Amino acid sequence: MTNRLVFLLTSILLIAILAIITWLESSKPKAIALIPALTNQPEYCLTCHNGIEPVSAAHPTEVFGCVRCHGGERLALDKDLAHSTMRGGRNPSDFSVVERSCGGSECHSGAAKDERDHIARVMTSVQATYVGAITNVYFAFGGQPDQKPRYGMITVSGVDPMGKAIKLIEPPKSENQFLQKFLSNCSSCHLNAESINETNYHRLTGCAACHALTNSLGSYTGNDPTVKRSESGHANTHTLTAAISYSQCNACHNRGNYDLKTMTFNARADRPSNRQQDYYQPIAQFTKCEFELDCVDCHTANEVMGDGAIHENKKSIQDVQCQTCHGTLTTPPQTRTIQDVNDVALRRAFLNPKVPLAVGDVTVITAKGEAMWNIRKAADGSYRQIGKINGTIYDVPLVAGSKCKQKPDQQESKYCHECHAVRK
Amino acid sequence: MSLSRRLFLQLSFSVSGLLTLGGLIHYLGYQSETSSAQTTFTLDQPSAYSIGSATHIAPARAWLFRDTQGLYAISMICPHLGCIVERRESDYLCPCHGSRFLHSADAVNGPADRGLNYIKLTLTADGKVQAHINKTVERTERLRL
After folding, report:
1. Which of A72, A74, B17, B136 can pair with A86 through a Cys bridge, CB separation 3.0 to 4.6 Å?
2. Within an 8 Å CB–CB cutoff, is residue A74 touching chain B?
3. Which of A23, A28, A35, A114 to mutate against chain B (most B CBs within 10 Å)?
4. 3-state secondary structure of A363
5. How many Å apart are CA A2 and CA A21, to the nearest integer?
6. Is there a contact between B81 and A11 if contact means CB atoms under 8 Å apart?
7. Among residues A185, A183, A189, A174, which one has the least CA distance to residue A142?
8. Cα separation, B107 vs A324, whole angstroms
9. What is the DSSP annotation of A185-198?
10. Cβ-defined contact of B36 to A35 (cutoff 8 Å)
């Protein structure tokens, strides 16, 4: 081969390489910059995630951007580099990182007196600590000498409902085989546990466990072009909501039971079909409102997310009874007129597009005084409930004046079910 | 076709030179967004705004008003987290978290803990109104005409 030919081929090769590099560079997507009002710093996440949904009306993309919540390298256009410092993987609301992602005095770690300490509340809630189940099982199987709450799935400290200091620590490893099996098989029922990777069990962790709605497959159906539609582990879309459908609660509360004899979780074999049939407890009875309404229509934010105190079990925090809305033979439901423009009920209703609430409205309240802002007393003295998910309006019948003979001291649902349960 | 050494070298240098030049231009032409968007907005002549008028200046995220004292402008950027408030018949409402403000810009309810900002107005050399949205002024300050 002559020198001339070698030179020619080498030159052609170099030019070809330059041309390929030029073509590759020019075929890359044009960088899309976003300068969120909150950070005032450019970020390029939308270059790849162009089309992703805004998180919510309270978190517009042009104000929050991506990095404020997710972390990550805002200027990087390389996927691995851009994602290298993200918090919580895909889920910045996982409790391991939620304070850095969602906290801050102007966001979800505000003043407790204003009930803006959402993170602190939910971290100490029964749904996060799982304290009631742990206490009962540890006591029953010899893991602790009494039923005093000691252990939680996360370590938290604070005060109990009486204002007394309390601390929960993670349950210690035990040589007791029942407790070992309990911890390994039965401790996935808390907010920060990974969900079972099966149809109808999918949910995320942390705040997103409830506020990011998942479909039965845990798949993404939104408009972010980078997310595979076939994989599980995603919310339905990149959105958070306070209008939490019953189907989201079902991912944990309606998919099976724990068996304390074998310390295993017995999953439901059937799939949800309709609301009336979907309830899993074979011995349980339900009234019409319990399968027509969504869970959040009656169960309040303080019940579900915590009220700031560390409660020892579900019963301690659960406040709503049938009488809360229906009253008793002798008393109507307790109510409160919204008077303060800073009333927390107004704030909560503002986040819900279906339930208008204004100063002057009269709402039902729980025994602890929390407003059930979607249940109103009308000017004619009747009561109506507005569905938080779909806006459906329901008349709320009162016990007073009805044929009901329920004793005032028997107001738990099991007594009401004796007459009002609907056959499956 | 025979190619002379001179022609070959000329062609090689030309092609690689053009490619290198293209890369250099691309590199030097790269601009990163280093700071926020525009902060000064030039509006119309003051005569365009009559006494008692309220004009939405959307690009500046502000409303411009004129009273008997002069012109003033209120920023629509919510002091809570920076969402854009909506002017309604009797108040301003932040669509993100529900803060409300009177038309005077005073906060009615949180989460915002203070009122909306009044922003600085000046006149350009040719007499047009200019709004500086990153500069706040006292509520009593007017661009006197």
Report:
1. A72
2. no
3. A35
4. strand
5. 29
6. no
7. A174
8. 35
9. HS---STTSPPPSS
10. yes
Strands A165-168 and A156-159, how do they pair?
antiparallel
Rounded distance, CA A214 to CA A247, Å?
A: 9
What number is the ipTM of this complex? 0.80
Q: What is the DSSP secondary-structure string of A296-321?
A: HHHS-HHHHH--SS--SSHHHH----
* Token code pair at residue A360: 């002057």
The 10s digit of each residue's pLDDT in A345-399 is: 999 999 998 999 999 999 999 999 999 999 999 999 999 999 999 999 999 999 9
d(CA A70, CA A89): 8
Q: Which residue of A10, A11, A351 is the best one to mutate when testing the B interface, meaning the one whose CB has the most B CBs within 10 A? A: A11
Residue-wise over A371-405: b if at least 16 C-beta within 10 A, else e?
bbbbbbbeeeeebebbbbbeeeebebebbeeeeee
Q: Does A38 touch chain B (CB under 8 A)?
A: yes
Query: Would the CB atoms of A342 and B110 count as touching at under 8 Å?
Result: yes
Closest residue of chain A to B19, computed from CA coordinates: A18
Is there a contact between A366 and A376 (Cβ–Cβ < 8 Å)? no
